[in-house]
Amino acid sequence: MKIGLILLSILFSINSHAALFLEPLVLTRVSGETKHQALKYGTEKTNYGARFGFMSGGSFIGAEAMGSSWTITSPDKTTEEDYSGLSYGIVLGHQIGLFRFFGNYYFSNSMTSDLDNSKLDGSGFVLGLSIGGLNYLNLVVSYEISHYKERTSSSGIVTDLGGDLAIKPQIILLGLSFPLTF
User: Which pTM value belongs to this model?
Assistant: First the structure.
């Protein structure tokens, strides 16, 4: 009986600091490029989305959905192509004082060309730091690496982009988030 009460009190004390969180965020590219067939393409990107999850004792885990708007420029800067992206994944992190460290893994990461409706599919991950000095407003810096391994044309033809054919954006993003805890 005593062991049961001790375990129950430990579980209660752990969960007394638990909360749900919702964090809308907007990020824009400040540095980076896209690599494809040993060439470097210019990359502009804006992310917008939200995280939702569970926080306890400074650590958090949640889901993230992120929309994006891309412009990729050829190495010789003669052509540009716009893309619309959508990513879903999991986020893990820990908050220490004003600093929140996090990592995301996008198990579904896709972008669709506005020019020909072809779709690129892959995965990606993000490492980031969020600094919060004001209530409900954080500055976010993140490093995002994506790996697009499959292209589907508008007519449904699937092309494997393995090896050097893979499209690999690597970018640094800067933005704001609005963390809300319930």
Answer: 0.86
User: What are the pLDDT digits (tens) for 73-128?
Assistant: 999 999 999 999 999 999 999 999 899 999 999 999 999 999 999 999 999 999 99
Residue 144 burial class via C-beta count within 10 angstroms: exposed 0-12, middle 13-18, buried 19 and up = buried
Q: Looking only at Cα atoms, what is the longest distance across the chain? A: 76
d(CA 83, CA 66): 14
Asked if residue 134 has pLDDT above 70, the reply is: no
The 3-class SS string of 43-94 reads: EEEEEEEEEEEEEECCEEEEEEEEEEEEEEECCCCCCEEEEEEEEEEEEEEE
Sign of CA dihedral 40, 91, 177, 142: negative
Amino acid at 119: K
Q: DSSP code of 100?
A: E
